[in-house]
Amino acid sequence: MKCDGRGSRSFLETIRSITPIPPDTLLVSFDVKDLYTSIPHTNGIQSTRWLLSINNISPDLVDLCCDLLSIALNNNFFLFEDTYYLQVRGSAMVSNVAPPYANAYMAHFEDTSIYTHALFQNHVLTWKRYIDDVFCIWRGDLDSLQDFFLFLKTSWPGLDFTMTHDPYQISFLDTLVIKDTNGNLSTDLYSKPTDRNSLLHYDSFHPKNMKRSIPKSQLHRVTKIVSDPVIKEQRTSEMKSKFRERGYPPRILDTASTNDTTRVRDSAMSRIPFVHQYHPAAYRLHKTIRQHWHILQTAFPTVKEFQHPFLPCFKRPRNIKDSLVRADIGPIHPGPTQRFLSNPRTESSVLIPRTLPPVTLFDYLHSELPLSPLERTSILFFFCGAHKSPPPAVI
């Protein structure tokens, strides 16, 4: 019933394990509006502390994790036009901490408020959540469902739900769940009415392996999700037509159709990744490395990573979009621009409280602020590891 991070795979396993459901049931989906940017910092940190504590993590490690989380949440600055802002609620959308942080908040909400609620215990047959999306099978009338929906919308700070319900079919993630007249559930691919054929074009400047793997993964997705054999054949034909429209040759589609996607993949955990920007000539470089890889295997027989082939990994090079689209659109008023948080351009253009200490890494670690050694270490860890690149304020 509880959250599962595996997404649609776990959801399909749950649906196919359900026996025929009673005729008076409703298929329901709930969605939390703007979850990542709506969680109050204090409540979110409390939920994270609760989740870590119930998993038998040492109190010292729980305190350290919560301190680091507090630093990440309370120092989330961003630039718009010529002004820096401090986000005072929720987490940054691009932050690595955002999904587990939101998941912890929702898990705390479920455990303390939902699972013990009388309406949940009396009417919910299945409850499956993936971060901010919930699938529910509700046994009861529409009035009781509306009462439960009102409870969800008003019970916890920062959570505002939307609800969709139907007696016969409902969409969840990329799956359409269908109930027949006998109460049996089946699944089909779901796509929004506004969806267009946005598959990667075959002439695009991307690695050949990627172009071969996309048809395999998408056709496997059809096989995995669609439960009815007749509809599965139809969806497979439709998917191939989409690839043909994007220039994929028939031989790649035929190979993808016959590919055995159920095989167990070799673990990549013990392989050394070789990461570099993509270039068409990179395959010749990979070939050269493979030809001489035995030198490392012979010279270092005890290093287990050298006993496996290396793992080529491509990074996306700079493209036209990177040159045309910028997050910093520049100042809107002539005159000096603001480049440091501690030196605002004008008093009225900065929304950051004046009581905040300097926010450069140098100021944090070397000033006379009342920081303990643990706090200074935590700040150093945050600035070095919590961002893919330092924010402008750290320059």
TrEMBL record:
Task: Report the superkingdom from the record.
Answer: Eukaryota
The cross-references to PANTHER family, in alphabetical order and at most eight, read: PTHR21301:SF12, REVERSE TRANSCRIPTASE
Protein name as catalogued: Reverse transcriptase domain-containing protein
Give start-end ranges for the coiled-coil region(s): none
Question: Secretion signal: which residues?
Answer: none
Question: Which InterPro entries does the protein's record reference?
Answer: HTH_animal, RT_dom
Species annotation: Ranitomeya imitator
The Reverse transcriptase domain sits at 1-189
Q: Name one Pfam family in it.
A: HTH_animal
